[in-house]
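@channel sequence for tomorrow's demo:
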Amino acid sequence: MHKIPDTFCPAKWDELYVSFEMNYAYSCCKGKTTKFTDTVLEFVDRERWAMLQGQQDPSCDYCWNVEQEGGKSLRHHHLEKFNADTFSYYKHNSVQPKLVQVSLGNECNFQCTYCNPKFSSQWEHDVNTRPYQVFSDRFFYAIDPKQPDVMENNIKFLGGFNHIGTLSIIGGEPLFNKKFFYLIDTVNADELQLSTNLAVKQDTLDRFLRACNKFNLVTLRVSIDATGSIAEFTRHGLDYAVFCNNLNYLIANAPANLKIIIGSVMSSITIRDLSEFSKMVIPLLGKQVDWHLDYCRDPKIQSMHTLPDHYKTDILDELVKLEKFDIRGVDMLQSVVANTTFNRILHQELKHFMQEFSQRKNIEIPLCLD
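structure tokens (generated this afternoon):
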């Protein structure tokens, strides 16, 4: 049996994260990003080699720093689950990745108030035209320079893997991206995961449902966090009636291997609609439909720090009602709403931002911000 170096971590081979727009690639969710010029693994391969030579590669400083302080790092957790008998596959670079996450780019048909140019081409265009007057979140709306387009070559590279455990796709809006179906047709994986705003034509939905047959399991996260005019304001570009029709169509025609997750990132704005929103979501839950709740951390002006205290009692009462359902994140959201301190300065920034946003889009703010 080959001796395993003290610096080895299987995540360097098991996980791969790639952006086809910014041309960065890294392995392990805590690894440092590196920009490639031609092929995805040009830097990752060097980092793997260093690990096999017993070197602490700087790309893994997140774990090295934890270990230097005597702590148990993520690398240690990976090693606890690692089968040492398979090390030779890692040493000879013949192991197949368990997870590949691909960012197709920021091409999107929405401009959600809590999103930014990195994930929305609508935001990129808006900020390029005229930056927003924000202070606390000024870096949140920065625009990263795009790199030369090597997407097609790198999709072919990923298609060269004999087997991938899970292919995870993020955007932008994947179903709006011209390369989405080419990617999933080319890459071989057991499981497909992606997030969508579901604002697509029915023929696109039908094509996606047919494509599900290629995979053992498909997990589709459908993003929505409010109803009616509040949803259409915070998720600018949304037609709420069309969304509901698409969601009902998706559920009615879902193949057995498709898991639908209604994913809700609650901001200080959308959480005020929790009562009405719950009435929409709860009847949909079932064998193939789950609901996951999360909360907005950035931009700070839409975090719970800008939720006035007088809303909290009703929101917490509504969250108590949700405890009887199998909904992920209810307890976490309860804690955040109850324990986050209201920040008047951030709240003033929120009001200025929303007023500017509504003026640019020529739409009314559908609720009182105070």
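heads up for whoever presents: The CA atoms of residues 246 and 252 lie 10 Å apart.
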